[in-house]
Fold:
Amino acid sequence: MTSTAASLGEVFARTRAEHRAALIGYVVAGDPDRATTLAVLEALTAAEVDVIELGIPYGDPLADGPTIAAAAQRALDGGTRMADALEIAAEARARNCAPIVFFTYVNPVDKYGAERFAREAAAAGAVGAIVPDVPLEEIERFAPPLRAAGLDLPLLIAPTTPPARAARIAAASSGFVYLVSRLGVTGAGKAPDVAWAQGALARLRPVTALPLAVGFGISTAAHAAAVGALADGVIVGSALIDAYRGRSGTAAARAAGEYAAALRAALPPR
Structure:
């Protein structure tokens, strides 16, 4: 049975009505294999993860730390490519999994063809795409095919982004705005900079009506609670992958689901 995934706007409207932040989990398509990825996506959905970022494995992941880079390499070694990630998303939609936002980079999209990627991603049921290495100055060249296909394009704001530029990034975003909570690549080794995130959220709320989600460094229930008290979304990647690394099939799904459920339970009412 196929289903129509909720849009990002619908997801955040629901979590707002439930007086809590959305929980967004990141996994790499094909890590360690297709069947495990699908089992993990189902387990995350059962754990009430609201949105899933599905990483398309890539050999030069500029924003990704060692955990995600290793997961991408495992997927590549297993033969997972762009077309496979699109097929996984389509199967996840058929299984009524949480809405999927692809996470990829400019080079794989350009190589595959931006129009083709946008068309096939939308057909697979994805509701958006995050492409962190697209600079703001190039977004109007890159974004039209994605927008035409109905995909949202959340953009990233870093701690080093000046306020005026952050406002322009927010204006160019759709779906939500992704706030990077600390400098450097992704990873669970350092805690999120909650104080910076609090200030950034306060500066951005007057200039955008989009939901504001915070990621990078969130790995514990305490982190999720602290960020979830402030932001509209809590993004967890490396720590989620670490939760099931080295496992496959139902064992991986169980580990991922239990970890996600603990984070979900930690989100405070707002």
Q: What stands out?
A: Residues 184-188 have pLDDT under 50 and may be disordered. The longest helix spans residues 249-266. The beta strands are 22-28, 51-55, 100-103, 128-130, 156-157, 177-180, 212-215, 233-236.
